[in-house]
Q: What sequence folds into this?
């Protein structure tokens, strides 16, 4: 993948052409105007783009891509900028394409249970618009009040209800996207299982490398009749992790199954006063939903299982307000940790659930080794970990230490048979870790997929997939399928 | 049960060296789908066996030649299932063929499709390289989603060696209700819009069939709330639908699968209908012209596939065709795998 051969002399003519096409107010080039777009949710990385473009129509997006393609200027698309892996980090020699003006809900179709929206529509706004019909959009990333559906598709966002209701890819029916050549492509529909290659799956989670999403149709589900949440406190993390396995073994798929460790519990409690047991080493939140009868039956079973697994306290929410409060604590965990440390670095590995206790032991060891605290918050039901590494960027060397610590955690995830990113994406952040997870031939295959859509490598280049050259320089020991190459060799 | 991965890789490299085209064959139960193709039969069913299965993880990894029967039997022992109920169309059906064809059974609208359950794969691409994509965990966004891209690709992008997929617990209780119904589309959609534990809903010959599955209380409560008589041996009906063994499917007429938005009114086409998937998949036995059927399906916002007979795939055009062609050459630049099975030109 090559970042197009940019001729700097072309820039004024490109900006001029864009202004002529979009109008001056839709093309930002002043320093101050560009500042808010320098970073996304991973603010340690910042770059100022050549220009920020604010198109309002699909035709304008097509025109932008055609013009930038002709000038060989790279394009980075951006939704709300809430991503946590630097996927929307601008390029200094490229333009930033903001989809902020694509903020209309085009259609709520209650009969077919779908919503067609522009990419800049916020995740939660879809559920709000569907609510009068008793329907909702299931994926609920913690940033759902701010993040947009276009970004959700680009990152294949998850949330706390993934185990039962799936990721974005499972809840997406159709997309319209524009290729770097400026062609509008429609894939999927309200009819299930389109023929041909599953481009809908391929586009989901492609981090803006294959096309610019200009419209999405998502599935709406009927609101469950009842949801109840069980809060269980444990004296040690291992027992909590085992309890998770017991719930699954009992044939129950909870709507959400979340775990927090003591540091996260205390931080969240201080922040939102959710009524969490602050003396506990681990806390499980288990949400059960379905018909009223089913929820009652499962609540009894899960309570028993938690007690048998050694829970020191088991509570069910007394009412809807308390249920929401229990969740508020969990959903505020990141900002809560932000209050107890000048900076934190959020990781996103996934491992097979059975390896949870061992993984937590290893993270604790690394924490001692690096001298940095860690708060653990995770989607225990699907093995998706969010260790938050606490550090102070003003202390020289601490950011580097935190990043090295993070990479070590991700390597452990790969070793355990998992992945370096469960839902936040690779972006620029995990490029080196990708070298641990994938063989050169696999990375080359990814680059070939990219080239199938974008032969000149102009869409969000340098993100998502590392170059083979970078991996060679990074020199990561490739950990494949939990096995190091040549295990017979001693390592020093 | 054997690991013949190396042999398969050698076979592909040999074909590449000799510029021969391969026709990937496993259980040979779904050859009727898609175009008949030339090419040397390349037998992969010997690569079989369950590689990893821990019921508490809700994930199984198995080699492509593992029979669906073996997989379902192992799952049954742990009180779990393939929630997407893949049609087998014969006892020899294998995991690789099931994923390559990407078909799903009656539970599809309620539990997700074959593709929704795939988590990762190991494959041989058209350069003879063995590649791993995705993983054995539910959430994984590292790299492009190449493993789900294999679902429904009919082996045109490579040979699947192993697939990891999500499995789910079997419901504690399940029953089927049947009643006469004159507005099946309206009725089946009203069920889908309700929070009831419906996990299959179909209509044929004037009768609506609704399967309820869940906890004991949820099922018995839902039964009280819905109309219909309890159908003794309801599973026989769903198995017959899944395998196309119901009398409806016994026909000499062309059989069409029409996928459409679930609330679409019945299409104005001559023939005999069966409604499945809560009205989003409709089977039509009809002698009507291919063009007319495809046109009507498209007007309804859907698509039509001739399920038995030549003409499975609706022809692609424009940028969509270009992207398919580019993806095919990204995985299989020499065109060694299943040439013409999905699209005439590749």
A:
């Amino acid at each position: 993948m090559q970042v197009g051969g940019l001729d700097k002399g072309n820039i004024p003519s490109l900006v001029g052409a864009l202004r002529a096409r979009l109008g001056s107010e839709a093309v930002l080039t002043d320093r101050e105007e560009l500042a808010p777009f320098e970073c996304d949710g991973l603010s340690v990385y910042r770059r100022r783009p050549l220009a920020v473009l604010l198109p309002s129509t699909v035709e304008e997006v097509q025109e932008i891509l055609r013009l930038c393609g002709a000038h060989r200027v790279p394009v980075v698309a951006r939704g709300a900028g809430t991503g946590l892996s630097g996927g929307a980090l601008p390029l200094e020699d490229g333009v930033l394409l903001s989809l902020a003006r694509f903020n209309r809900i085009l259609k709520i179709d209650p009969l077919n249970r779908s919503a067609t929206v522009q990419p800049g529509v916020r995740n939660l706004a879809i559920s709000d618009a569907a609510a009068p019909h008793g329907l909702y959009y299931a994926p609920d990333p913690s940033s759902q009040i701010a993040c947009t559906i276009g970004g959700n598709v680009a990152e294949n966002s998850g949330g706390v209800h993934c185990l039962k209701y799936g990721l974005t890819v499972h809840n997406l029916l159709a997309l319209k996207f524009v290729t770097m050549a400026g062609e509008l492509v429609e894939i999927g529909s309200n009819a299930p299982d389109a023929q041909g290659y599953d481009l809908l799956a391929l586009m989901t989670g492609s981090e803006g490398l294959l096309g610019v999403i200009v419209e999405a149709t998502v599935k709406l589900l009927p609101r469950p009749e009842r949801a109840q949440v069980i809060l269980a406190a444990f004296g040690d993390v291992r027992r909590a992790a085992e309890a998770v396995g017991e719930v699954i073994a009992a044939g129950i798929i909870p709507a959400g199954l979340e775990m927090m460790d003591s540091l996260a519990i205390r931080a969240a409690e201080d922040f939102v006063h959710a009524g969490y047991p602050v003396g506990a080493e681990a806390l499980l939140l288990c949400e059960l939903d379905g018909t009223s009868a089913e929820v009652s039956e499962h609540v009894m079973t899960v309570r028993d299982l938690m007690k048998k697994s050694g829970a020191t306290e088991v509570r069910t929410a007394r009412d809807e307000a308390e249920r929401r409060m229990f969740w508020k604590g969990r959903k505020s965990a990141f900002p809560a940790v932000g209050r107890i440390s000048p900076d934190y670095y959020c990781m996103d590995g996934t491992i097979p659930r059975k390896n949870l206790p061992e993984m937590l032991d290893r993270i604790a060891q690394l924490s001692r080794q690096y001298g940095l605290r860690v708060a653990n918050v995770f989607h225990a039901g699907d093995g998706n970990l969010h260790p938050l590494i606490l550090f102070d960027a003003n202390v020289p060397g601490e950011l580097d230490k935190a990043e090295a610590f993070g990479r070590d955690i991700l390597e452990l995830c790969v070793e355990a048979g998992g992945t370096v990113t469960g839902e936040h994406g690779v972006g620029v952040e995990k490029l080196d870790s990708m070298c641990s997870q994938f063989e050169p031939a696999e990375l080359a295959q990814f680059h070939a997929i990219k080239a199938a859509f974008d032969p000149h490598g102009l869409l969000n280049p340098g993100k998502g997939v590392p170059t083979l050259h970078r991996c060679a320089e990074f020199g990561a020991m490739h950990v494949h399928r939990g096995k190091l190459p040549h295990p017979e060799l001693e390592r020093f | 049960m054997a690991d013949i991965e190396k042999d398969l890789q050698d076979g592909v490299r040999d074909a590449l060296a000799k510029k021969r085209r391969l026709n990937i064959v496993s259980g040979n139960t779904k050859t009727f789908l898609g175009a008949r193709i030339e090419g040397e039969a390349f037998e992969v069913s010997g690569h079989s066996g369950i590689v990893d299965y821990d019921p508490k993880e809700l994930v199984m990894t198995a080699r492509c030649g593992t029979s669906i029967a073996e997989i379902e039997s192992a799952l049954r022992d742990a009180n779990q299932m393939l929630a997407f109920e893949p049609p087998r169309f014969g006892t020899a059906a294998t995991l690789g063929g099931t994923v390559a064809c990407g078909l799903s059974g009656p539970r599809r609208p309620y539990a997700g499709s074959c593709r929704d359950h795939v988590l990762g794969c190991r494959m041989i691409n058209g350069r003879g390289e063995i590649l791993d994509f995705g993983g054995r965990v539910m959430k994984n966004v590292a790299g492009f989603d190449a493993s789900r891209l294999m679902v429904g690709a009919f082996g045109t992008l490579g040979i699947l060696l192993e697939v990891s997929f999500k499995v789910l617990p079997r419901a504690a209780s399940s029953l089927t209700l049947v009643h006469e119904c004159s507005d099946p589309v309206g009725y089946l959609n009203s069920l889908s819009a309700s929070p009831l534990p419906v996990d299959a809903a179909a209509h044929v010959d004037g009768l609506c069939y609704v399967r309820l599955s869940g906890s004991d209380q949820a099922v018995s409560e839902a039964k009280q709330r819905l109309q219909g008589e309890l159908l003794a041996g309801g599973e026989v009906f769903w198995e017959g639908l899944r395998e196309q063994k119901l009398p409806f499917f016994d026909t000499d007429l062309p059989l069409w699968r029409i996928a459409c938005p679930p609330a679409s009114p019945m299409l104005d086409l001559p023939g005999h209908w069966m409604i499945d998937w809560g009205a989003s998949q409709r089977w039509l036995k009809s002698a009507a012209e291919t063009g007319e059927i495809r046109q009507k399906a498209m007007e309804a916002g859907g698509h039509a596939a001739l399920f038995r007979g030549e003409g499975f795939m609706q022809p692609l055009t424009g940028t969509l065709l270009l992207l398919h062609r580019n993806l095919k050459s990204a995985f299989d630049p020499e065109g060694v795998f299943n040439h013409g099975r999905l699209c005439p030109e590749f």
In short: Residues 318-331 of chain B form the longest helix (14 residues). Chain B has a mean pLDDT of 96. The radius of gyration of chain B is 21 Å.
